[in-house]
Amino acid sequence: MIEMVKMDSQKHRRILEAIRLSLDSTVTFTTDDLKVIDFFVDKHALIEKNAIETAEQALAMSSLPIPKMLLEHLLEDEKKHDAYMGELNEIKLYMAKGAD
Ligand SMILES: [Fe+2]
Questions:
Q1: Does residue 27 surpass a pLDDT of 70?
Q2: Which of 26, 30, 27 is nearest to 38 (CA)?
Q3: CA of 19 relative to ligand 1 center, distance in Å
Q4: The whole model's pTM is what?
Q5: How many separate domains does the chain show?
Q6: Which of 23, 42, 46, 85 has the fewest CB atoms within 10 Å, measured from its CB?
Q7: Is pLDDT of 98 > 90?
Q8: Domain region containing 92
Q9: How confident is the model at residue 29 (pLDDT cuts 50, 70, 90)?
Q10: Per the domain annotation, does 85 fall within a domain?
Q11: 17 is a domain residue
């Protein structure tokens, strides 16, 4: 759990840095950038859905408290990753309006 908090803190630091950078500059995407996002979303959407299914199955079979608690955190993260794919797609559509 301590390691999970440390990793989340690192992630939050990077998110805050990305926010700062996005406020300090104009973000533009090329057509190639959009293709990379498309490829990433296509590939990872299925991976994330499979990860959710696997985590749910493992959680259903788990009765020990610590593995169960860790699996619940894993499942939450996989659901977030799945949602990120949708958000990434929205960003792609938004940025496609201004792409070259
Ligand atoms: Fe994931």
A1: yes
A2: 30
A3: 22
A4: 0.80
A5: 1
A6: 23
A7: no
A8: 29-96
A9: confident
A10: yes
A11: no
